[in-house]
Amino acid sequence: MSDFWLYLQLGLEHITDIQGHDHILFILALIATFSTKDFKYIVWLVTGFTVGHSITLALSTLDIIPINEDFIEMLIPITILIVCLSNLFNTKDPKNQPHYLQRNVPFKRYFFEATIFGLIHGMGFSNYLKSLLGSEESIWEPLLAFNVGLELGQLAIVTVVMFINAIIMGFTSFTQRDWNIFVTGGAFVSALIILIG
């Protein structure tokens, strides 16, 4: 059982490590249009992302799918840029209601998009996990624990961001639209720097 907690902690630390900021940027972009009242939708989106990266993390760790590290490192910031563009240009609501919640655009479509982009990010996690596994006889328990740690870390990031959102919305003249532009703009510029850097 101690191994489970060890890998859970490693997953938690990996997703919250500022050096792995590309994954944090993706989460920030994914939730930028949401406020605290939409927390259940945020959890679903983050869980969709986890489902996606769990699949490819398992497949790549088991050497079932090949990984071109340079190609994946290029794709990850592109996923962030796509979400950012969607945040900025795919809503017509003047109050900046998340387009995920508009009746003519089913939320499940964006859940699946988060899952698909998660597949790409999972391949980005795989080399790190492979280096950790070393000579482990079975990878299933470490793999599960690592993914649970990643999910807990993502939820911790979301909780902190939503807490900041609630404070800013409650004590300043910022609107949710301003928040979206600020967070999405920052994520977009950062992802662009990663891509061309």
From TrEMBL:
Transmembrane segments: 20-36, 43-65, 71-89, 110-129, 149-172, 179-196
Signal peptide: none
Domain of life: Bacteria
Assigned keywords, A-Z: Membrane, Transmembrane, Transmembrane helix
Protein name, per record: HupE/UreJ family protein
Species of provenance: Flammeovirga yaeyamensis
